[in-house]
Design a protein that fits this description.
The complex is a heterodimer.
Chain A: E1 19-21, E2 35-37, E3 57-63, H1 72-78, H2 85-94, E4 99-103, H3 116-129, E5 134-137, H4 142-155, E6 162-166, H5 171-181, E7 184-188, H6 193-205, E8 213-216, H7 226-241, E9 251-253, H8 255-259, H9 263-266, H10 278-295, E10 298-303, H11 306-320
Parallel strand pairs in A: 3-4, 3-10, 4-5, 5-6, 6-7, 7-8, 9-10
Antiparallel strand pairs in A: 1-2
Helix pairs in contact in A: 2-3, 3-4, 4-5, 10-11
Chain B: H1 5-11, H2 25-33, H3 47-57, E1 64-66, E2 73-75, E3 93-99, H4 104-116, E4 118-121, E5 124-127, E6 130-134, H5 140-151, E7 158-161, H6 165-175, E8 181-185, H7 190-199, E9 203-207, H8 211-224, E10 230-233, H9 239-255, E11 266-267, H10 269-272, H11 276-288, E12 293-296, H12 301-314, E13 327-331, E14 340-344, H13 347-360, E15 364-369, H14 376-381, H15 387-396, H16 399-402, E16 407-410, H17 418-424, E17 429-432, H18 440-446
Parallel strand pairs in B: 3-6, 3-12, 6-7, 7-8, 8-9, 9-10, 11-12, 14-15, 16-17
Antiparallel strand pairs in B: 1-2, 4-5, 13-15
The chains are: A alpha/beta, B alpha/beta.
């Protein structure tokens, strides 16, 4: 007698919040297009049990100064474009970025601190070079972040930038800047479900609507804490789909930054022969990290290598076709 | 379905005889429910209870073993959908496929490479696990010859791939008794395949060409023919559809305790994509999402190393984080004038700090203290990372002998330990570093 297998579906009750990045002229910005993430009612790519209205997006990381500290594999792939953020942004758009992630280094090549005016001018230049929505991150020290991001928020008023990183120690300043000038924030917490929830609550208490908040659960690269990020993201996503309103933000993962910082992506010599070729290893390191995090709920992966961008674009297209 | 401790207790003798080594039958029942002890530890349990309990305690995903001796590996026996719910237990085996139509030298070269490959990470050796040999020629004799030739080069377990029961029988005869996996029984050939599998030692893969209904139907028939060690291929070669199938199979086994599909899964990433990059992405998905055996069509150390690292990450028990060995670690060839930093032996702490030290390009020494695998703040709160612990590590590992000026940098989160540590380490200058690893490069630049 033929067997009939009932396909097991979870009855999720929650929905990931839709968040739109960028604003066109109609909405007070200058972007030629906007990008929306979120809106899912199921786990990543499980089309058989829920809706996935928006595919995960790819951000390409650029910086406001030549990143001499980057892996030689990356520097070679970007060539001269890495000298000029505007040229770099154009190149990233050509390569198929959905959004640009501009990282402010905090100092110039001679070690002088970046001023708010300089940061604002760079963001203006990048906005002028590309029509894509932009994420802007400070150098990662709370004081410098506050100073630069407030200047950026004001200079790019109405563009719906995503400003980060917005952490427990500086969220008030960043959120205030986003509120005053019509931007989004990237709420960042160190690999912890409860801290992530708590920060969303604090931000929401300041009256920033949650459809202007992206979550950064903190990315651990392959071999450097990936499993912690993976599991925290799965827990956040399950909580969100089970109806916990303070975990329903789309998640962004800074995959390129973490993957390419590791020895595996930098060291060509003096490593075991079992590690293989540096270029292929580095690209695979980024590809595996990105794929794993997409499968655990990433709505935006920010990448660095052009080849990885190509691979992950193909992967997302395949996983969204059904 | 798994029984609760109380349900199990009702089936036990309730004599509290202690012969099982536990003080009461209830305590034993609780251990049984937690799958920390075997029912055979109770000498008095009735046959009736035994049957009821073993049926209930049979793992929802059957444990299947491949290979023998040092290269044996096992797959299945998984109990959760998400690793944070408990842990994933048995790492998927990675195999490289060769075809019996390839030149003998080409096959030999691949087999030798895979046989010798092993890469080390956090003190763990990570080898490749198996060789798959495909009967592309369709000739039983050719297949058996290649299997025999490969066996002469390696003790690795085999996945023997053929549509023909006759070819698999011939291969089994020369395979050497290393418990291979035979791939695969389908609606067309399941009867002779089951007969070959039953006669030889090994497990049998079952492949559906038409979804899960056909697969369940096949496994029931094959089990009826007396073969229990099965591995499933639900058939899809599309990345997304395959994710859906693998997820559904795991759910059916765990949540519905659906016996016909309670077996480990086999995947072929090279058949999911035309390109090497596509194969890497598919293998990544299969490692994270539920495969038991992954048969690759390409081998490159630059790919094997990341994939084996991912497997290690995903299958790490979240409750027992890997810790690193306490001791002194060197970064960028430090000298006697380089800074000495210290932190705990929690692997993530270590990797965060090590990553920054490495990336900074600046020479430094890092003293890892035994804080029982806890992070800095957790260990400090638990009294496992205090001045005494740090001073002991400094002395045990002779940190003072490595540097000219006796200075040590504490993690910023435990700045409060400075005073005590000065008392524990007379003559040392105690410095306070950044709270977060990301600020280490800037700290090193300014360090004096």
């Amino acid at each position: 007698m033929p067997v009939t297998v009932e396909v097991p579906k979870e009855r999720w009750t929650g929905t990931i919040r839709e968040v739109t990045l960028g604003a066109t002229a109609d909405d007070g910005g200058t972007r030629t297009k906007t990008v929306t993430v979120g809106g899912q009612t199921t786990l990543p790519f499980l089309h058989f049990e829920g809706e996935i209205p928006n595919p995960p997006i790819i951000g390409i990381e650029i910086q406001d100064g030549y990143p001499a500290d980057w892996s030689p594999v990356l520097l070679e792939s970007w060539g001269d474009a890495a000298n000029d953020p505007a040229a770099w942004a154009r190149k990233a758009e050509e390569l198929g970025a959905d959004v640009i992630m501009l990282k402010l280094r905090g100092t110039d090549g001679d070690g002088n601190p970046t001023t708010g005016e300089q940061a604002a001018a760079t963001v203006k230049a990048v906005l002028g070079a590309t029509g894509l929505p932009i994420l802007v991150r400070g150098p990662g020290q709370a004081e410098a972040d506050n100073q630069l991001l407030v200047a950026v928020a004001e200079a790019a008023s109405g563009e719906r930038l995503a400003l980060g990183l917005c952490e427990d120690k500086n969220y008030r300043t960043i959120v205030a800047g986003a509120l005053a000038h019509g931007h989004l924030v990237i709420a960042s917490t160190p690999i912890d479900v409860n801290l992530a929830k708590q920060l969303n609550i604090l931000i929401s208490d300041m009256r920033l609507p949650l459809d202007r908040v992206l979550m950064d659960p903190t990315t651990g690269a392959l071999g450097y804490g990936l499993e912690y990020t993976y599991s925290v993201m799965e827990r956040l996503r399950v909580a969100a789909l089970t109806g916990d309103g303070m975990t329903q933000q789309p998640m962004v993962c800074f995959v390129g930054e973490e993957s390419w910082r590791q020895k595996e992506s930098r060291a060509a010599q003096g490593v075991p022969k079992e590690w293989g070729d540096i270029e292929k290893r580095g690209i695979t390191w980024e590809t595996v990290t990105a794929t794993t995090l997409l499968e655990s709920g990433a709505d935006c992966v920010v990448l660095r290598h052009p080849k990885t961008i190509d691979i992950i674009r193909g992967t997302i297209n395949t996983l969204m076709a059904h | 379905m798994a029984l609760s401790g109380l349900q199990i207790y009702k089936l036990l003798p309730k004599t509290n005889c202690k012969d099982c080594g536990f003080p009461t039958c209830l305590a034993f029942a609780m251990k049984l429910a937690a799958q920390q002890v075997d029912l055979s530890a109770c000498p008095h349990v009735s046959d009736e209870a035994k049957e009821a309990l073993s049926a209930a305690s049979a793992p929802p995903v059957r444990l299947v073993k491949l290979g023998t001796g040092a290269r044996e590996f096992q797959v299945g026996n998984e109990t959760v959908m998400f690793r944070h719910e408990k842990t994933f237990f048995n790492k998927p085996g990675l195999a490289l496929r060769v075809k019996d139509t390839e030149a003998a030298e080409a096959i030999a070269a691949k087999v030798e490479t895979v046989n010798a490959y092993s890469v080390e990470r956090v003190g763990i050796d990570m080898p490749f696990d198996a060789i798959a040999i495909e009967n592309t020629s369709g000739e039983a004799g050719t297949f058996a010859d290649v299997v025999e030739a490969v066996r002469a080069k390696t003790d690795l377990p085999f996945v023997l791939v053929s549509d023909s029961a006759e070819a698999l029988k011939a291969a089994l005869a020369v395979e050497g008794g290393h418990k291979p996996l035979l791939y695969a029984a389908t609606t067309d050939n399941w009867e002779p395949m089951a007969a070959v599998a039953k006669a030889g030692e090994g497990s049998l893969a079952v492949r559906s060409k038409d979804g899960l209904d056909e697969l369940a139907d096949l496994t029931e028939k094959i089990k009826g023919a007396g073969v229990e060690d099965l591995v499933l291929d639900p058939g899809s070669r599309d990345l997304g559809a395959s994710l859906a199938q693998f997820t559904q199979l795991r759910r059916l086994a765990l949540k519905k305790n659906f016996r016909p599909l309670g077996f480990p899964l086999i995947a072929f990433p090279g058949e999911v994509a035309d390109t090497e990059e596509g194969e890497i992405v598919a293998a990544t998905q299969y490692i994270a999402k539920y495969a038991g055996i992954i048969v690759m069509d390409r081998f490159d150390p630059a790919v094997a190393y990341p994939l084996l690292t991912l497997r290690l990450n995903i299958y790490t028990d979240p409750q027992k984080p890997i810790s690193v060995d306490p001791g002194i670690y060197e970064f960028n060839n430090p000298t006697a004038d380089s800074p000495l930093l210290t932190t705990t032996n929690f692997s993530l702490t270590y990797f965060s700090v090590a990553g920054e030290l490495d990336g900074s390009g600046m020479p430094a020494w890092l003293l890892i203290c035994d804080a029982e695998g806890m992070s800095v703040l957790t260990a400090w709160a638990a009294g496992k990372f205090d001045a005494e612990t740090i001073a002991k590590a400094v002395k045990t590992f002779g940190a003072g002998d490595k540097i000219n000026r006796q200075k040590i940098t504490l993690p910023g989160h435990v700045a409060v330990l400075s005073g005590e540590l000065e008392e524990e380490l007379p003559g040392w200058e105690i410095q306070v570093g950044p709270r977060e690893a990301v600020d280490i490069p800037a700290y090193l630049k300014a360090w004096k």
